[in-house]
Amino acid sequence: YCCSCAGVWCDWGSGAGVWCDWGSGAGVWCDWGSGAGVWCDWGSGAGVWCDWGSGAGVWCDWGSGAGVWCDWGSGAGVWCDWGSGAGVWCDWGSGAGVWCDWGSGAGVWCDWGSGAGVWCDWGSGAGVWCDWGSGAGVWCDWGSGARSECVTPPSTHR
Question: Does a structural domain hold residue 33?
């Protein structure tokens, strides 16, 4: 069954139905037996949302240049920003989360499973703060020329 030149709606025996729009350039929605549904937007340049049987859903934005959010079955979610130049936040199954800023030149904050957190500033020239499991914290300033000792970090480091 074909609705019009703008869209195509077809049911191929799944009993749930399949709807796909090829040609409008606005989006594509398709359900291939998963029962949950799959929605994908190719061509609009605004975003892509797709659910491939995980049951949690996958949302990804390629092309807008603002950000990318994707959940690939971890259940916690993965959010990553490539291209904006403002920051990158990613959670790859650690459950604690990983946040990293590459490009802004202001700082980098990353937590790789230590549970305490790691914050490091590369490029600003103001300082470097890193906590690698010591639990007390290590703060070191490389580059400013003011100090090189390690001290207790400030309370607000993220």
Answer: no
